[in-house]
């Protein structure tokens, strides 16, 4: 008897899959064309494939498999789970699998830093079955239904017998490709499988969205966007329709005699200077005394108008939310190279952090709920920015419920100290002392904010040029001379961390040069074979760097002199190169790395593993998690639940055996609204 059964489902709907698998499956127009499934004993065996179409008898072998608790496999299994729950079980009587039965090749690929699409993944394993691209075109042509107002119903594409046969062939080819890569992928550790199952449980549970608040803010944002466009049209004498069209704005600024800022852009391996009106460039221009009159007014308009991009997603929210007012499937497991979660749809991980004082925040939220744009305009310098900062308020507790949440405190700085073995810094964290004040003292300053910037920015080898820019963006203006001094003073005070950069880079270089040898760096283990460099984390999980190599290259390196001047030096350096998943997540691209970046990777990865442990732990302790955003976790409990925020924080910071001594801490809240 095979150990796993793979499933792939082809559907048609008037709903967009971009709104999420659960909203898609729940939509009244969604129907199933066919379900293909198959088994395979090993990577070299032929798969046994079957297909069911509506109208046929239930597939007995599959139903028996599910009832007996057999394992089920899919690529992006969330889609198959949702279709199964909302269509196959209620409409056709299929037995419903338990969550623990499911496995997902996309989740395993994400964990291994491989392409997320089945096409890209099959391409990595050249000997595996490949995705049928002709069938893919057919699938897309019959996947969309349309609503006909006259018919008062949905019109579906006609699927002739030969097309159905071709669609079945395509579906079975996907099953075969999925089974083939399943046997070739690195195996998911048990603790990661538990984390993925909890991830699926959280996504299925969903989080409540205040749709009335969303609709009101969307209307106000559109009105304000029109106002800003009208203002620019008037200021420029009808030459510009808005301030957000970059090509038109660049041309107008040049006509006004403004010299545009430039930035470096890397294209096809070559670095060149290009004109830019990005956020930093515009803010720098507005800081100049010679920018005035109409130019200043238009650039100020642009700063606010650019916030409309983050508010545009509000229009899609009603289509993503289920009939019960809950957003499901918002979290994406292990998308980042380090294993950290990302988000889709509303992009809850990208919602601006609300740093306003509670009184200020509540006043703006009240105006939005009233639908009073005039009041927001009258009290806020940049109304769209104020609305953008209010986006997290759309996430609320369900009826009769409260949200209990907490944020890890400076989690990366704490994990970095632990990984680097800096006992004095660990003791400082454990004592509850203000680490930012201590960091400021280390660099000869009494500015806590500067200490915070140093702690959060310099831990991964940042140079003085980038540090000066970062500090300025965080409200601590530094010229290059002072940035260089502060950076060097911080490094002198944090030798353990600086040594950690060099030790990890040395281990990685040694592993690449001596394939098969293992090198220990504190709590980490580094090794490489012919295909991959692996850094094994304290949790037992690994970060993978594919096809690693060392290459000598000549680089122009900008350096800061003691006088604060930038000098470019041509250096012959040995680069660490590897392949990683590109931005589209479907192909591998060449990247470079170094000690500080490697330390950033492992630090973020360990912080992520602590979060994964917390999610599993909180679920086990009866706190139903509904959302997590970066280092923040929130659960939803009944009003009558007497457990405290302190209890939530305690369970969130309970350390697994592999992290004993790591000085993590969390601060929490209980509210009707998300505050993470």
Task: Produce the secondary structure layout.
Blueprint lengths: L3 E9 L8 H6 L4 E9 L8 E5 L7 H8 L3 E4 L2 H16 L9 E3 H7 L6 H7 L8 H9 L4 E3 L4 E3 L5 H24 L5 H16 L1 E3 L1 H25 L10 H10 L6 E6 L2 E6 L3 H8 L6 H13 L2 H5 L4 H4 L5 E2 L3 E2 L9 E2 L14 H13 L2 H7 L3 H6 L6 E2 L4 E8 L2 H10 L2 H9 L3 H8 L5 H10 L6 H10 L6 H14 L1 H19 L4 E4 L2 E5 L3 E5 L5 E19 L5 E16 L6 E6 L1 H26 L4 E5 L2 E7 L6 H8 L13 E6 L5
Parallel strand pairs: 1-4, 4-5
Antiparallel strand pairs: 1-2, 2-3, 6-7, 8-11, 8-14, 9-10, 12-13, 15-23, 15-24, 16-17, 17-18, 18-19, 19-20, 20-21, 22-23
Helix pairs in contact: 6-7, 8-25, 9-12, 11-12, 18-24, 18-25, 20-21, 22-23, 24-25
Brief account:
The protein is an alpha+beta fold. Helix content is 44%, strand content 21%. It is built from 26 helices and 24 strands.
Question: What brief labels describe this structure?
Answer:
single chain, 676 residues, alpha+beta, 6-stranded antiparallel beta sheet, 5-stranded mixed beta sheet, 24 strands, 44% helix, globular
